[in-house]
Amino acid sequence: MNAKYIKREMPDLNGTGMTQACYKMELRPMSFEQFVDLCHREGKIDESLIIGVMSMVSEKLALCMAEGYSVKLDGIGTFNAKLGVRSDMLPDAFEAGMSTRNAKSIEVKGVSYRADKELVRDTAMRCTLERGGVSRLKKSEFTLEERIQKARDFLGKNMFMRAPDYAQLTGLSRSTATAELRKLERDPSTGITSRGKNSQKYYVLR
Predict the structure, then answer these.
(1) Closest CA relative to residue 168, chosen from 182, 198, 185, 147
(2) What pLDDT score was predicted for residue 136?
(3) Around Cβ 159, how many Cβ atoms within 10 Å?
(4) I want to staple 173 with a disulfide (CB 3.0 to 4.6 A). Which of 72, 138, 149, 185 is the partner?
């Protein structure tokens, strides 16, 4: 069965006056049971053995990442834990004099995965694409000036603002809201700037 791709509309980040296009795979779900059955049928290996090996890999992978290892599985990829401040804690700052953290305020927030080049090459060789659907940007009912004012009003009542807050305020999609905030923080006239990086990034008034 051939895979399908979706043409996705992206925000105009370069100021060209035109939105950009990117392409993503139209994904179909495959359950653990379906994957095990596929391995069983094509590899002629007992299902219980497949489940046992995969369960052990999952368990030991979690253990090694929890101990601080970056685990490389040949032909699959490299795994390591991602840390962040607990969601019930206020954002942190690196500058001297600001609040400090202890181990109890930091937790594992996710797992970083970098695919093995061999896996990418093998996937590309096996993949035959067909055209799928089109994904358009979610438009806001507010003008840019109105969106900026909404952000300022929000920050006037709250200590900080994150991208999901801005998306909810303006009606933009999460990705569009994130891209627009990056543009706003580069313009001093908006009165909005940022602190932190990546998942810990938040916005404040200048």
Answers:
(1) 147
(2) 73
(3) 10
(4) 138
The strand pair at 129-135 and 3-10 is best described as: parallel
Q: For 68-117, give the DSSP string.
A: T--EEETTTEEEEEEEEE-TTSPPP--STTS----GGGEEEEEEEEEE-H
User: 105 pLDDT exceeds 90?
Assistant: no
| 27-48: average pLDDT | 93
Answer left, alpha or beta for residue 175, where phi above 0 means left and psi between -120 and 50 means alpha. alpha
Q: Are 204 and 194 in contact (CB under 8 A)?
A: yes
14 DSSP 8-state letter = S
Residue 181 is given by DSSP the state H
Residue 129: its H or E element: strand 129-135
119: alpha, beta or left? (left if phi > 0; alpha if psi -120 to 50): alpha
Q: Measured between alpha carbons, how far is 97 from 99 in angstroms, rounded to an integer?
A: 7
- Specify the pLDDT at position 85: 82
C-alpha pair distances (Å), 46 with each of 14, 36, 60: 54, 10, 22
Taking CA atoms, 26 is separated from 5, 19, 29, 124, in Å, by 5, 21, 10, 15
